[in-house]
Structure formats: C-alpha cells, structure tokens
Structure to design on (272 residues):
C-alpha cells in the first residue's frame, strides 16, 4: 500500500470534492456520442471482463455491459457511483460499481482482460501509481485503453487558462502529461508488449453558443465550478470571459451552436 503524507491526503480530499461538485452525470450527456464511438472501437462484448477506471456516472460501463461484457466501474466520487448504480438499475443492466481510487484499485492482480479509462485516471495526482495499478489488474495479454486530453488541444488550453487564475497544488503532476506520447511510453512501456499512441479528436457539440457553453461548464463541471468559486470580483469575471473566448476561438459551428473537436491521445496497449 503506498504511503501518503498529510499534504497528499488533503489534496486527494480536495480532488474528490472537486469531482463531486457540479453535476457530472448531466454534464456528460453532451459528451456521450464521442464516448460511445470510443467504446465501440474497443469491442467490449461477450467474454470481456472490463474495468472502467474513473467511470463517472457509467457513460461507457453501462453500454459495454449492455453489449455483453462483464463490467466493473470504479470512481473516486461517491455521488457519481450512486448515479451510475441508479442508471444501471433503471436500464436493467448488470454492472458492478464501486467507489475507489485509481492509485490503489480494490481488485486482485490480473482480474480483467480489458482495463479502460476515458478521461478519468489522468486526473489522479500520482500517475506512476496509476500506471502500475492499470498494469497490475490487467491479465497478461490483456488490453489497456485510455483517452487523455493533450496539452495542445482545446481542453488542455482550458486547463491552462484556469491554472492562470487558480494555480494547481505543487503536489499535483499535470494531468495533461497523460496526453504526451513520450510520457505515456515512460509510464506504460515497460509493462506492455505493444503500445499504440494516436492523436484523435473528440467531438464536443452543444446546441447553444460558446458563451453559454462556458457557463454550462461553470454550472456542471467540477473543476470549473470549483475554480470559479475560488475567485472573487474581477478575477471571476475575467475567467468567465477567457473561457468564453476560448470556446469561441475553437468553435467550428456556423449555425449558432458550438462544435469543438478536442484533441486527445488514444492509448492502446497489450500487457506483457
């Protein structure tokens, strides 16, 4: 079991509170088409024992189970796990959901033949532990798949903008490092016999203009909810303006809606 300093315990408590704020279950609705497209490429069907790390409210865990996979979902946010369980029950789909930490997964070695994380595990503060855990719970010859925002892409730009107003903890390794090919090779390469890293784009489509998208994030997406709450007066107004401008500058839609194709690193590996 990894040791944790009091400072790291405080950081992890704060991170959990961040992901429990807003309403990620509602927020993720507009991201579902991209999530389902990513899941489809994984071919998670009968015979697949899948672990979804950072499963949120079950956006891919539930569809994977519906396709015949035996699915377990784990997330640090207890309210999202509750949402996921409610949705699975409502839709009549069997998934095992549990609250847990990507740095210390509550499963035996080699429990799964597919371990996935769609924009999830990248946000844990100690990435070396995350990498070791993803490898540990995956059986030899099993697959590991991640989708991680790149530093250069739209969401990477958004986090850099936020960091200009609310600097991250010095204990927090940048989540965007998971979107850098060389870094991912360092973290997963030794434990895998093949590793494919491809930059792709994730469609973020909203039926309202960029300024309203920024406000949508400030209302429902934990990191932006918490960042705005940490500011006062002019700083709060400026962050609002900067994120609205970022969405506008990357918007590809011309009909009054917002369409941003956000770059991510698609990670596909086979464990030794």
């Amino acid at each position: 079991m990894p040791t944790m300093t009091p400072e790291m315990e405080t950081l992890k408590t704060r991170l959990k509170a961040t992901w429990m704020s807003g309403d990620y279950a509602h927020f993720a609705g507009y991201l579902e088409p991209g999530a389902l497209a990513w899941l489809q490429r994984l071919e998670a069907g009968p015979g697949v024992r899948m672990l979804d790390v950072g499963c949120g409210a079950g956006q891919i865990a539930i569809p994977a189970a519906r396709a015949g996979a035996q699915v377990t979902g784990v997330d640090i946010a207890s309210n999202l796990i509750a949402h996921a369980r409610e949705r699975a029950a409502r839709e009549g789909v069997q998934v095992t959901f549990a609250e847990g930490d990507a740095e210390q997964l509550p499963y035996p070695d080699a429990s799964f033949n597919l371990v996935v994380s769609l924009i999830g595990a990248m946000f844990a503060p100690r990435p070396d532990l995350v990498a070791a855990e993803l490898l540990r719970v995956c059986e030899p010859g099993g697959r590991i798949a991640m989708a991680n925002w790149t530093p250069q892409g739209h969401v990477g730009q958004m986090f850099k903008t936020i960091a200009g107003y609310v600097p991250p903890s010095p204990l927090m390794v940048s989540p965007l490092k998971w979107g850098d090919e060389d870094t991912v090779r360092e973290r997963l390469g030794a434990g895998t016999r093949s590793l494919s890293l491809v930059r792709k784009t994730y469609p973020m489509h909203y039926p309202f203009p960029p300024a309203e998208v920024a406000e949508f994030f400030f209302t429902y997406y934990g990191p932006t909810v918490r960042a705005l709450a940490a500011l006062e007066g002019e700083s709060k107004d400026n962050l609002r303006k900067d994120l609205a401008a970022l969405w506008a500058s990357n918007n590809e839609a011309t009909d009054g809606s917002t369409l941003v194709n956000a770059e991510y690193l698609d990670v596909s590996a086979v464990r030794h």
Summary: Residues 6-151+169-203+263-271 form a domain with the Rossmann fold fold (CATH 3.40.50.150). The chain has eleven helices and seven strands.
